[in-house]
UniProtKB/TrEMBL annotation:
<feature type="compositionally biased region" description="Basic and acidic residues">
    <location>
        <begin position="805"/>
        <end position="827"/>
    </location>
</feature>
<comment type="function">
    <text>Involved in nucleolar processing of pre-18S ribosomal RNA. Has a role in the nuclear export of 40S pre-ribosomal subunit to the cytoplasm.</text>
</comment>
<feature type="region of interest" description="Disordered">
    <location>
        <begin position="798"/>
        <end position="827"/>
    </location>
</feature>
<feature type="compositionally biased region" description="Basic residues">
    <location>
        <begin position="431"/>
        <end position="440"/>
    </location>
</feature>
<feature type="region of interest" description="Disordered">
    <location>
        <begin position="863"/>
        <end position="891"/>
    </location>
</feature>
<feature type="compositionally biased region" description="Polar residues">
    <location>
        <begin position="1"/>
        <end position="12"/>
    </location>
</feature>
<dbReference type="GO" id="GO:0030692">
    <property type="term" value="C:Noc4p-Nop14p complex"/>
</dbReference>
<keyword id="KW-0690">Ribosome biogenesis</keyword>
<feature type="compositionally biased region" description="Basic and acidic residues">
    <location>
        <begin position="205"/>
        <end position="215"/>
    </location>
</feature>
<feature type="region of interest" description="Disordered">
    <location>
        <begin position="171"/>
        <end position="215"/>
    </location>
</feature>
<feature type="compositionally biased region" description="Basic and acidic residues">
    <location>
        <begin position="177"/>
        <end position="186"/>
    </location>
</feature>
<feature type="compositionally biased region" description="Acidic residues">
    <location>
        <begin position="361"/>
        <end position="371"/>
    </location>
</feature>
<keyword id="KW-0175">Coiled coil</keyword>
<feature type="compositionally biased region" description="Basic and acidic residues">
    <location>
        <begin position="868"/>
        <end position="883"/>
    </location>
</feature>
<protein>
    <recommendedName>
        <fullName>Nucleolar protein 14</fullName>
    </recommendedName>
</protein>
<feature type="region of interest" description="Disordered">
    <location>
        <begin position="1"/>
        <end position="47"/>
    </location>
</feature>
<comment type="similarity">
    <text>Belongs to the NOP14 family.</text>
</comment>
Length: 891
C-alpha cells in the first residue's frame, strides 16, 4: 500500500483494485447474473480495503509461545463488529422492553355491538350470526363454476315452476293485484323480527332466545309462586292441627277410659296380663302419664323467655348509679329514724350487699383479708402472737408515729414541746384517744358521709363506727366522690389518700395496734395510690424526711443514750413495710424506694444497740432488706454486719475482746454496758418460737424466751442473706468472718432447737463457700490468638505447566476451586453486560432528549421567524407611513 495520508492511501487502494477509473466500453450488454457477481466482488474488495485502512477493527493477541499448526480461539478479535452486533441485539431485545415498560396490556373487545348500548341482546346476536355467515361464504357468492345448484329453503330453484308451494302465494282479497301477501312480508322480510311469542307458537316457528331480564323475571315469579304455595300448605296444616286439638278433648275420654274391672290401678305394665272377661282397648290406659304431659305443656307455656342483658355500662355510669343508690338509701334511713317509713325497708338490708356482677366485672371486688402483721416471723396480732401468714402481707399500712408515741411520749411532749431538736411526730392528733374495737356495735351505719380533708375530720366520722364498718365507710365515700361525678372530686380523693395513710399510722401505733383494721383499709389505699401515684409518692417522701430528721436529732443527743430515739418504732416499721410492698423495689433509682433504702441503711449503720427492742427493730429492717433486694440482689453490708453483731450479742461465744473478732466489720457495741445483759443465760433450754414484733417492741422486758426467739431469727436471716449473695464476687470475704463466728459459739449452752439451727446454718455456709472457692479463678492475662511472625519464603509450585496449575490432588477442593473461578468469571461478565446495557439505555435516552431539543429548537425558530417577519412588516409599514407624512408635509 502506498505511503502518505489516509486519503492518498484510500485513492491508491481503490485504483489498484479497479474500483475507480474509466469503465470498460463494451458493445455487448452484460447479463443480470454477471452484474450481481460483479457487485459481490466489488463489495468484498471494499470490505478488504476498509479493514486494511482501519487497523482498530482487528485486534490480535500476541502469543507468548507460538506453536505452528495450532489453532487457538480468541487470538484475532474484531471489537467493532462485536460492539455493533451487541448494539443490534440490544435494539431487538432491550430497546423493545424499554419502550414497552410503561404500557399496560389488556383485551380489546371488538365484538360487534358489544359497546353499543342502543342495541339489544337479540340484535347483537343476529348481527354476529350474519357476519359469521358472510365470512364463511366469502368468495363463493359469485362462483359460477360451482357444481352445486342454487337452492331456496333446501330445494333446487330449477325444479320450482312457480311460487305456490313455498308460501309466497297471493292474497285474493287484496285490492292491489300482483302484490305479495301482508303476512308473508311480515314473516319473511325484514319485518319478521317480532316479539310476539303467541304468533310464533301458532306458526310453529323456533322460539327465540330470552334475554337476561326476562329469565330473571321468570325466576322471581317462580320463587314467589313456590313461596306462596308453601305458605298456603303451612296454613292448611295449622288448620288441621287446630281442628285435631279441638277434637282431642272429646276423644280423650274414649281413648283413656279407665278399666272398670281394674282394682284401682292406673296403668297396665308392659308385658303384664289382663284379667279374663274384661275388655281392654288397643291403646294402653295411662292417665297418670297424660297428666304429667299436660302439666309439662302448661309449664312450657308459662315459662319465662330469656331476655337480652343490658349493655356494658361505663365507669362513669356505674359510679353515678352507685351514688344515687347510696343517697336513696340514706333518705330511707332518715325517714325510718323519724318514723315516716316502716323499719323493715329494703335500704338497710341491701347496705352491705355486694354489687351485682356485670359484663365488665374483672373479679376485682375488694375482699377483706386479714393482715398478718408487719413481717415474716416478726408480725402478729395481739390475739394470735404465734400464727403469722407471710403471704398476706403484700399490702400493709404506712408510717405511724415513732416508737415513743405512747403515754411516755405524751408526757414528754407537754414538757419539751418548745425545745429545739425534739422529735417530730408523723401524725399530730390533739385530744383524741386511741381507737378501740367494737365501739359502735348495734348502731345503724349511714349511707352518705362527707369527704374528710384532714385526719381529725376522719376521726370524727368514724368515732362511733365499729372497725369492721370502717372499710364500708371509705367505700361509700369513694363512691359518692367519684372522679367522674365532679371536677373537684379528684382533689378530694387525693386528700383522702393522705388521710387514710395517716389513719393507718394512727391505728398501728402503740399500745394497742389494730392490724385487722389495717388489712381492711389497704385495698382502698392501694386503689387510690394507683389512681394518684405522684401525690402518694410525695406524701411518702414527706414521711421519710420526718423519720430522717428524727434520726439525726437522736444521733445528736448521743447514739448510746437510752433516751435517744435512733431506732424505728412500730408505726415507722409499718410505714417501711408498706413502702416495700407497694412500690417497685428492683428499680435502680426510685422516688420513694431510694430514700427509704438510705434511711434503713442509716438505722442499721448508725444506730447503737441498747436493748432487745433495738435488736428487734434492726432485725425487722433486715427482713425488709431481704424483701427489697429479692430481685435486684444488691449488696447491703449494713444488714449482714448487724445480724452478725446480733449473734455476738445474744449467743454465748468464746470471744472476749473486740480485737479477737474475725474480719473487719464494725462492732462498736461488743461487750458494752448495755449489751452484756442481752446474752443468753447458760443452761437456758427454752425452745425458740416465732418472734412476736408487737410484744417485743411494746414490752421492753429482756426475757430469756425473747432472746432465744431473736437468736433463732438471726440464724435464719443469715442463711437467707447467704443464699441471696452467693453469686457475688466478694461472697468469700463477706461470709468467712461470719462462719468463724458461728463456729466459735458455745452450742452446748443453748437449747436443742437453737443447736439444730446453728448446725444447719454452718453447713449451708460451708457448702456455699466451697462452691465460691471452686468458681473463683486467679487473674491472668487476656487470652488471645498468637500473632504469627511474618515470613517471606517464596511459594513453590508442584508443577511448572500452566494447564496443571489449578489441578489439585483433592477432587472436592479442585471442583470447589473451579466453581469459584467460574462464578468469578460469570460475575465479571454479568457486570460487564449490565454496564453495556446501562450505557446503551443512556444513549437511547440521550438521543430522545436530542430529538426533543431539536424539535423544540425548530419550533422556537419558526415562532421567532414568524415574529421577526411580522415585526419586519410592521417596521416597513411604519416607514411607509413616515414617508407619506413627509410627502404630505407632516412630521
Amino acid at each position: 500500500m502506498a505511503k502518505g495520508s489516509q486519503l492518498s492511501q484510500l485513492k491508491s487502494a481503490l485504483s489498484h483494485a479497479g474500483i475507480t477509473g474509466k469503465p470498460q466500453q463494451g458493445k455487448k450488454r452484460k447479463r443480470t447474473g454477471s452484474v450481481d457477481k460483479d457487485k459481490e466482488k466489488r463489495t468484498a474488495k471494499l470490505d478488504e480495503i476498509h479493514k486494511k485502512l482501519n487497523p482498530f477493527d482487528t485486534k490480535v493477541t500476541k502469543l507468548k509461545h507460538d506453536v505452528g499448526g495450532r489453532k487457538i480461539k480468541g487470538v484475532v478479535g474484531r471489537p467493532a463488529q462485536s460492539k455493533q452486533a451487541g448494539i443490534e441485539q440490544r435494539k431487538k431485545t432491550l430497546l423493545e422492553e424499554f419502550n414497552e415498560k410503561d404500557r399496560a396490556g389488556g383485551i380489546v373487545d371488538r365484538r360487534f355491538g358489544e359497546n353499543d348500548p342502543t342495541m339489544s341482546l337479540e340484535e347483537r346476536m343476529l348481527e354476529r350470526f350474519t357476519k359469521e355467515r358472510q365470512r364463511a361464504s366469502k368468495g363463493m357468492s359469485f362462483n359460477l363454476e360451482d357444481e352445486d345448484e342454487l337452492t331456496h329453503y333446501g330445494q333446487s330453484l330449477s325444479k320450482l315452476d312457480d311460487f305456490d308451494n313455498v308460501g309466497l302465494g297471493l292474497d285474493d282479497d287484496d285490492e292491489d293485484k300482483g302484490q305479495l301477501d301482508r303476512d308473508i312480508v311480515r314473516r319473511t322480510h325484514f319485518g319478521g323480527f317480532d316479539d310476539d311469542e303467541q304468533e310464533d307458537e301458532d306458526n310453529e316457528e323456533p322460539a327465540r332466545k330470552k334475554s337476561k331480564a326476562e329469565v330473571m323475571a321468570e325466576v322471581m315469579a317462580k320463587s314467589k309462586e313456590h313461596k306462596l304455595r308453601r305458605q298456603m300448605e303451612r296454613e292448611q296444616e295449622e288448620n288441621v292441627r287446630h281442628e285435631l286439638d279441638q277434637d282431642f278433648d272429646a276423644l280423650r275420654e274414649l281413648i283413656f277410659a279407665p278399666d272398670p274391672s281394674s282394682t284401682g290401678s292406673n296403668s297396665i305394665p308392659l308385658g303384664g296380663s289382663r284379667p279374663e272377661g274384661t275388655f281392654q282397648p288397643a291403646v294402653l290406659t295411662l292417665p297418670a302419664v297424660q297428666e304429667d304431659y299436660d302439666q309439662h305443656v302448661r309449664e312450657l307455656a308459662f315459662d319465662k323467655r330469656a331476655k337480652p342483658k343490658d349493655r356494658t355500662k361505663t365507669e362513669e355510669e356505674l359510679a353515678l348509679e352507685e351514688k344515687e343508690a347510696l343517697e336513696k338509701a340514706e333518705r330511707r334511713r332518715r325517714k325510718r329514724m323519724l318514723g315516716l317509713e316502716d323499719s323493715d325497708s329494703e335500704g338497710e338490708g341491701k347496705s352491705h350487699a355486694k354489687r351485682k356482677r356485670g359484663g365488665d366485672d374483672l373479679e376485682d371486688d375488694f375482699v377483706d383479708e386479714e393482715w398478718a402483721g408487719l413481717g415474716a416471723g416478726l408480725g402478729g396480732t395481739t390475739e394470735d402472737n404465734h400464727e403469722i401468714e407471710e403471704d398476706r402481707e403484700d399490702e400493709s399500712g404506712e408510717d405511724g408515729s415513732d416508737e415513743g408515741s405512747g403515754n411516755e411520749e405524751d408526757e414528754e411532749d407537754s414538757e419539751n414541746e418548745a425545745e429545739e431538736g425534739e422529735h417530730e411526730d408523723l401524725i399530730r392528733i390533739k385530744n383524741a384517744g386511741h381507737p378501740k374495737s367494737g365501739k359502735g356495735k348495734g348502731k345503724e351505719l349511714p349511707f352518705t358521709f362527707p369527704c374528710p380533708e384532714t385526719h381529725e375530720e376522719f376521726l370524727k366520722i368514724v368515732d362511733d363506727i365499729d372497725d369492721i364498718d370502717v372499710p364500708t365507710v371509705i367505700k361509700r365515700i369513694r363512691a359518692l366522690y367519684h372522679t367522674s361525678l365532679g371536677p373537684d372530686n379528684k382533689f378530694k380523693l387525693q386528700t383522702l389518700t393522705t388521710v387514710l395513710i395517716d389513719h393507718v399510722l394512727y391505728v398501728t401505733s402503740p399500745p394497742e395496734p389494730h392490724f385487722n383494721l389495717v388489712s381492711s383499709l389497704l385495698p382502698h389505699i392501694n386503689a387510690l395510690m394507683q389512681a394518684y401515684p405522684v401525690e402518694a409518692a410525695e406524701y411518702f417522701v414527706e414521711k421519710i424526711s420526718i423519720m430522717h430528721k428524727n434520726l439525726k436529732r437522736g444521733l445528736s443527743r448521743g447514739a448510746s443514750d437510752p433516751s435517744a430515739k435512733t431506732w424505728p418504732g412500730l408505726s415507722e416499721l409499718s410505714l417501711l413495710r408498706i413502702i416495700g410492698s407497694t412500690w417497685s423495689t428492683s428499680d435502680l433509682n426510685h422516688a420513694v424506694i431510694s430514700p427509704a433504702r438510705v434511711l434503713m441503711g442509716a438505722y442499721l449503720g448508725l444506730g447503737r444497740v441498747r436493748s432487745l427492742v433495738d435488736i428487734t427493730s434492726g432485725l425487722f429492717l433486715c427482713t425488709l432488706f431481704l424483701q427489697f433486694e429479692e430481685l435486684s440482689k444488691r449488696l447491703v453490708p449494713e444488714a449482714v454486719n448487724f445480724v452478725a453483731n446480733v449473734v455476738l450479742h445474744l449467743a454465748p461465744h468464746q470471744y472476749k475482746t473486740i480485737e479477737s473478732l474475725p474480719g473487719y466489720f464494725p462492732s462498736p457495741d461488743f461487750q458494752s454496758e448495755h449489751c452484756r445483759p442481752l446474752s443468753l443465760r447458760k443452761g437456758n433450754k427454752d425452745a425458740p418460737r416465732k418472734a412476736n414484733l408487737v410484744e417485743l417492741l411494746i414490752n421492753n422486758k429482756p426475757t430469756e424466751q425473747a432472746k432465744s426467739d431473736l437468736l433463732s431469727l438471726a440464724f435464719n436471716i443469715l442463711g437467707q442473706f447467704a443464699d441471696m449473695y452467693k453469686s457475688l464476687e466478694g461472697f468469700i470475704e463477706l461470709y468467712v468472718p461470719v462462719l468463724d463466728i458461728l463456729k466459735h459459739i458455745d452450742a452446748a449452752d443453748m437449747a436443742n432447737g437453737l443447736q439444730t439451727q446453728l448446725v444447719t446454718c454452718v453447713n449451708t455456709l460451708v457448702r456455699l463457700l466451697k462452691f465460691s472457692h471452686q468458681a473463683r479463678q486467679p487473674l491472668r492475662l487476656q487470652a488471645h490468638k498468637p500473632i504469627p511472625i511474618p515470613t517471606y519464603i517464596p511459594k513453590f509450585e508442584s508443577t511448572s505447566s500452566n494447564y496443571l496449575r489449578r489441578q489439585d490432588p483433592d477432587h472436592e477442593r479442585n471442583e470447589a476451586s473451579k466453581l469459584r473461578n467460574q462464578y468469578k468469571q460469570e460475575r465479571k461478565g454479568a457486570i460487564r453486560e449490565l454496564r453495556k446495557d446501562a450505557k446503551f439505555l443512556a444513549g437511547v435516552e440521550q438521543q430522545k432528549q436530542k430529538e426533543k431539543d431539536r424539535a423544540y429548537n425548530e419550533r422556537m425558530k419558526r415562532v421567532f421567524g414568524s415574529i421577526e417577519g411580522e415585526r419586519a412588516e410592521e417596521k416597513a409599514m411604519e416607514r411607509e407611513k413616515s414617508k407619506e407624512k413627509r410627502r404630505a408635509g407632516r412630521k
